[in-house]
Amino acid sequence: MTTEIVAYNNSLSESEASVCNKLKVEINKGLPEAESKIWHGHPVWFLDGNPIVGYSKQKAGIRLMFWSGASFDEEGLKERGAKFKDASVFYNSVEEINHQDLQRWLGKSRNIQWDYKNIVKRKGVLERLK
């Protein structure tokens, strides 16, 4: 894990940092092969250069976003928009994080991927990788 992610989490309130630290641990456990870094201002995990999952502080709480999450067919994840395939869940406390749901979503994020890495080259068109 990068020192930038630690700094990001430490910059938050105590309750927000607790949620982010728990998410960081769970993501690292579920996707040990992923590369993590601060991308567009918040922590993101990548597989082969493709963004998979990340979290950010928003007005509604800590948003956990899966770039290809709309294709997971999971009730607990809400689609954000029609153009992209992302889906999210918001947390305001560590107690709201369901370990089994999160690990299942992380497994799906490895096996269900849209190619965000090349979206600019394809002029906004997403293609399914897996």
Explain this structure.
- There is one protein chain.
- The protein has one domain: Alpha-Beta Complex (Aspartate Aminotransferase, domain 1), CATH 3.90.1150.200.
- Helix content is about 30%, strand content about 25%.
- The protein contains 3 helices and 6 strands.
- The protein has a 6-stranded antiparallel sheet, with helices on one face.
- A hairpin with a 2-residue loop joins strand 2 and strand 3.
- It starts with a helix and ends in a 19-residue tail after the last helix.
Q: How much of the residues is beta strand, in percent?
A: 25-35%
The helix content is 25-40%
- Please report the first level of CATH classification, the CATH class: Alpha Beta
**Strand order of the biggest β-sheet:** 1-2-3-4-6-5
Number of strands: 6
**Radius of gyration (Å):** 14 Å
What labels would you give this structure?
single chain, 130 residues, alpha+beta, Aspartate Aminotransferase, domain 1, six-stranded antiparallel β-sheet, 6 strands, 25% strand, globular
Concise synopsis of the structure shown:
With 130 residues, the chain is α+β, with helices and mostly antiparallel strands. It is built from three helices and six strands, in the order H-H-E-E-E-E-E-E-H.
List the helices and strands and how they pair.
Layout: H1 3-10, H2 14-30, E1 35-39, E2 42-47, E3 50-58, E4 61-66, E5 78-79, E6 87-91, H3 99-111
